[in-house]
Write a structure and sequence with these properties.
- The chain has helices at about 30-45, 60-70, 90-95, 110-120; strands at about 5-10, 50-55, 75-80, 100-105, 135-140, 155-160.
- By secondary structure, it is α/β, with parallel strands linked by helices.
- The protein has a six-stranded mixed β-sheet with strand order 3-2-4-1-5-6, with helices on both faces.
- The radius of gyration is 14 Å and the shape is globular.
- The N and C termini lie far apart (about 30 Å).
């Protein structure tokens, strides 16, 4: 069996209100346009997740909503506070609880980018991979039987895209 993991950094958020609580920050116009494009790319490439685990931050929830709007069969969505500014090991632990064969995680940098980097057997040859910008989306394939077997360096890159590529 093969497992597919999709690691998505939330789309571009709004910084206009300097008093805005970070957790409650929404997407800006660019982010609201980018999220459905990411979903469209995932659908077109055949990478539609069965489950999405998403941070509870407003910007990640809005990113999730935009992405899933492009799917014909919406995935199960699980929101968790644990992903809010989680480090790579905490995010990886969340994947270990998943079921099914295709999982997406929507989170924040630096954790989501660090996890992406650590899971790749070979990083994609994309100039933006290292910085993992807002809206970045990495798709990895793992030749393992269950999510708790996913470890560093095993992920085969199936695709990587940023909103500016779309």
């Amino acid at each position: 069996m093969s497992l597919t993991l999709i690691l998505i950094r939330h789309a571009k958020s709004d910084w206009e209100d300097p008093l805005q609580v970070d957790h409650d920050r929404p997407l800006n116009d660019r982010g609201r346009r980018a999220a459905p494009k990411i979903g469209g790319w995932l659908r077109a490439e055949g990478f539609v997740p069965q489950t999405v685990i998403c941070s509870t931050a407003r910007r990640t929830q809005e990113t999730c909503s935009g992405i899933k709007s492009r799917f014909n069969d919406p995935p199960e969505i699980r929101f968790t506070q644990t992903l809010y500014h989680a480090d790579a090991s905490t995010i990886l632990a969340q994947t270990h609880t998943a079921e099914g064969t295709a999982l997406a995680i929507i989170g924040h940098n630096p954790g989501i980018g660090s996890l992406a980097w650590s899971l790749c057997d070979r990083p994609p040859a994309h100039p933006k991979f290292e910085s993992y910008p807002t809206g970045a989306c990495l798709v990895l394939g793992f030749d393992v039987q269950s999510w708790d077997q996913v470890t560093a360096g095993q992920g085969r890159v199936l695709g990587f895209v940023t909103p500016r590529d779309l």
